[in-house]
Amino acid sequence: MGQVTFVEHDGTDHEVGIEEGASLMRHAVDNLVPGIDADCGGDASCGTCHVIVDQGWYDRTGSIGDDEQLMLDMTPERADTSRLACQIEVTEELDGLQVTLPEFQM
Q: How confident is the model over 10-58, as pLDDT tens digits?
């Protein structure tokens, strides 16, 4: 089984086993990763699951939809590789993915 790694803003790592087909947000919430609030439950309507994807993985996380783009545009800590974790479907192809959590969510 593969894994993904969430890195808190202070450098604390959380390695989580991959559950094929679940969103990256679901992986964080189900494994009690701090810093992912997921207030809307995965509808890309709150921006509280903002993550910054490592550059080498960004192209593998899929395309950004209009709703996600709108939410990211309002995110103060947005980076070039920002995504909403609720919009990333985790597959075995993302084994080894590392994302960084901003200090604050919206």
A: 999 999 999 999 999 999 999 999 999 999 999 999 999 999 999 999 9
Candidates 49, 37, 45; CA nearest to 68 is: 45
CB atoms within 10 A of CB 101: 24
Q: Work out the pLDDT band at 1, boundaries 50, 70, 90.
A: confident
Please answer whether residues 24 and 4 qualify as being in contact, where contact means their C-beta atoms are separated by less than 8 angstroms.
yes
Q: Are 97 and 53 in contact (CB under 8 A)?
A: yes
In degrees and rounded to multiples of 5, residue 89 shows phi and psi of: -85, 125
